[in-house]
Specification:
The complex is a heterodimer. By secondary structure, chain A is α/β, with parallel strands linked by helices. Chain A is 29% helix and 19% strand. The longest helix of chain A is centred in the N-terminal third of the chain and has 19 residues. By secondary structure, chain B is mainly α. Chain B is built from ten helices and two strands; from the N terminus they run H-H-H-H-H-H-E-E-H-H-H-H. In chain B, a hairpin with a 4-residue loop joins strand 1 and strand 2. The relative contact order of chain B is 0.14. The chains are: A alpha/beta, B mainly alpha.
């Protein structure tokens, strides 16, 4: 079992949920998730989450301070959800031991009802682990929407196409002039949609989805880097740009916020698009007052049958943290399962140098990205080359590598020269 | 997405909270608009006990409703009320959100933090307000540094006896209560007057509370022993 799946569903009581690790729900337990309960820091969980979310002058300011609060939240969630059921606790322990013995990371998939989305599940940690260990950092946390059935997608071929939007409106800038550098990986064909207008986004994504079957052009992934908002109607928005008033010889691009459903209208028209990466504030925020389907992430996930993964931000996200996240995930993507690529990126963010100008609080945002999945697997692209390199050819007995001649089965003489050994090894791997 | 380095909410596009009052009103060189004169008259009236009570009552009612109806209120009334804070001796407990901020500061354990962290929080609170103002020729960073320097200089002038290099006698009572809620509120009463005089737009609870805690952390007598320009650093 590579990933431990936990399924939760609500009951008639508001704080009580049913939980199982069996997708068919043949047996299940009841647990309670209550944010008014006391945490290990003797403060209610609600107050800790409030401080974690705070980005004003009462905010957490250093990673060590945050770790204490984050650990208390994560441990309380762990004791509620995993420790709250004997069966789940037993399954988790068995899975944990299996992971340790097989040198694998702990990967948890949480199938959540809407009412639990606002909790920071990315902080989940086992109280028995050493301080600073979080599953989302050293393994992975994947969120599934209970209303969406899992779906198997064929991993795509490499190289794959990534369409990128960088929207930095003149009236709401988050950076000055900046050079966009493609991710340093030959398997990603990177193209930027310019100017970052909504119309250009629609036109590009639709056009290249329908008119061609070439994977070099057809978008497999889409990334948006810019502002995200939740407006007064509690609808998530991405901020594109549009032409402003002419000043003199210049005409600035000004902000143009577009609602989640309008963005989804374009995304549903791309049957081959598998991954949407939203580097935008609150793009995956699902508070108690906002419906999940009104967020950008929720609308894309529920509104499209072919999108396998949406990565968004559950709160505002720091500009530099988002930058590092995007770069790290894209760089790892061709060789690493998506959920683990995100974990690598989280670790990179947590380790950011806070002495760098403007990066004072960037490292605190490692927990902000959230992965919502529809797909059952996490290999976005086929990784046959990696697998074959790690496994010995099937016709070769393992012992041959350990000192036996593969063809005769006789032991290799301890006095054999290096060229002898090399010749035998070449014979081993040569196709027959 | 945040502005560079600033990890607060997105830069807001909402109208300024006090559009007409972002500059220091004391060097009153230009002819005052009618509302400004009226506000000053109202302020001077509130020196009498009855007027003062009435004024405080009105302001409290206003402040409670401000969060929800501020955009629909006439700008004139809002500006007049804020100016009246300067001239009408509003007490710090009348600053909207003061108690909530004090509660948060205790609840989150911020009171236990050292002076350098409190100073960082003060700067964040000022950035939060500054980012909502029209920057004009100066960027947010310049506005923040300028305000903080003026605040510290003005506080030093108000609280410290420059000859004795100690706290002025009339402020000795500020030392009595120490780092308690009452102690912070006592210092906040002085800080809020100074903030209102420098720039009423910055008269928000977080700035007043952090400036007060910062002063108490440094030690008022120690801070007063420093020359004014060093104290403003």
């Amino acid at each position: 079992m590579e990933i431990l799946h936990l399924y939760l569903r609500p009951t008639s009581a508001s704080k009580t949920f049913e939980i199982t690790d069996d997708p068919r729900w043949r047996s299940y337990d009841q647990i309670t998730v209550d944010i008014d309960q006391a945490s290990p820091l003797s403060r209610p969980l609600k107050s800790l989450i409030q401080q974690l979310h705070d980005r004003g002058s009462e905010r957490l300011m250093r990673v060590p301070d945050q770790t204490q609060i984050a650990a208390a939240i994560g441990e309380t969630l762990f004791s509620n959800v995993i420790g709250g059921s004997k069966e789940i606790s037993k399954s988790f322990d068995a899975y944990h031991d299996q992971c340790i013995s097989q040198h694998r990371q702990i990967r948890l998939a949480l199938h959540l009802p809407d009412s639990l989305y606002y909790l920071p599940w990315e902080l989940l940690r086992d109280p028995r682990d050493p301080p600073g260990n979080f599953f989302a950092l050293n393994g992975s946390i994947i969120r599934y929407d209970v209303t969406i059935p899992e779906k198997d997608f064929e991993p795509a071929e490499v190289p794959f196409k990534l369409w990128f939007i960088f929207s930095n409106p003149w009236n709401r800038p988050f950076t000055g002039d900046a050079e966009i550098l493609p991710p340093p990986h030959e398997d990603i064909i990177f193209d930027q949609i310019m100017p970052a207008t909504f119309e250009r986004f629609q036109e590009t994504i639709r056009k290249f989805s329908y008119l061609t079957s070439k994977s070099q052009v057809r978008p497999l992934a889409f990334a948006f880097f810019g502002h995200g908002d939740v407006d007064d109607h509690k609808i998530g928005q991405l901020v594109f740009v549009k032409k402003g008033d002419r000043k003199g010889i210049t005409r600035p691009w000004i902000s143009d916020a577009r609602p989640s459903y309008a963005i989804n209208d374009t995304i549903v028209a791309c049957p081959h698009l598998r991954l949407a990466f939203l580097c935008a504030c609150e793009s995956a925020w699902a508070g108690t007052t906002i419906a999940f389907e009104n967020t950008i992430a929720g609308n894309l996930l529920r509104g499209s049958a072919s999108l396998g993964y949406v990565i968004g931000a559950q709160t505002p996200i720091d500009r530099f943290a988002a930058d590092i996240l995007l770069e790290r995930i894209l760089t790892r993507l061709p060789t690493t399962p998506l959920d683990l690529a995100i974990s690598d990126a989280r670790a990179a963010v947590r380790g950011m140098n806070y002495s760098e100008p403007g990066q004072q609080y960037s490292g605190l945002d490692w927990w902000v990205p959230v992965l919502y999945a529809r797909a059952a697997g996490f290999d976005l692209v086929a990784r046959a080359d990696i697998q074959s390199a790690l496994q010995p050819p099937p016709h070769v007995p393992h012992r041959a590598v350990l000192g036996m001649d593969a063809t005769s089965g006789e032991p290799v003489s301890p006095t054999a020269t290096i060229s002898d050994v090399m010749r035998r090894l070449t014979a081993l791997v040569a196709p027959k | 997405m945040d502005g560079s380095g600033y990890a607060g909410p997105d830069p807001p596009t909402a109208p300024l909270s006090v559009p007409a009052l972002n500059d220091d009103p004391s060097p009153n060189v230009l002819p005052s608009p009618v509302w400004y004169v009226l506000a000053r008259v109202w302020g001077s009236l509130s020196a009498t006990n009855d007027a003062c009570k009435l004024h405080r009552r009105l302001y409290t009612i206003y402040a409670r409703s401000a969060n929800v109806v501020v955009s629909r209120r006439p700008q004139l009334l809002f500006a007049a009320l804020r100016v009246n804070q300067i001239w009408g001796e509003i007490m710090p407990q009348d600053i909207p959100g003061l108690h909530a901020t004090l509660e948060k500061v205790e609840q989150f354990g911020i009171v236990q933090e050292d002076a350098s962290k409190i100073s960082e929080r003060l700067e964040l609170a000022v950035v939060d307000v500054a980012s909502r103002q029209a920057a004009g020729d100066l960027g947010v960073k310049d506005a923040v540094n300028g305000f903080l320097k003026r605040l510290k200089t003005a506080l030093h002038q108000e609280l410290c006896d420059s000859e004795k290099k100690a706290l002025k006698a009339q402020y000795n009572s500020l030392l009595d209560k120490g780092m308690t809620t009452d102690g912070i509120q006592a210092v906040a009463a002085v800080v809020s007057k100074i903030v209102a005089a420098i720039n009423p737009a910055y008269l928000v609870s977080s700035i007043v509370v952090y400036a007060s805690i910062w002063l108490l952390k440094l030690g008022l007598n120690h801070w007063c022993s420093l020359p004014n320009n060093a104290a403003a650093e």
